Amino acid sequence: MSDLVLAAGCVLWRRSAAGALEVCLVHRPRYDDWSFPKGKLKRGETALAAALREVLEETGHHCAPGVALPTALYTANGRPKEVSYWAAEATDGTFVANDEVDRLAWLSPEDARARLSRPGDRVQLDAFLETLPASGRRR
Question: 5-137 is classed in which CATH architecture?
Answer without folding.
Answer: Alpha-Beta Complex (3.90)
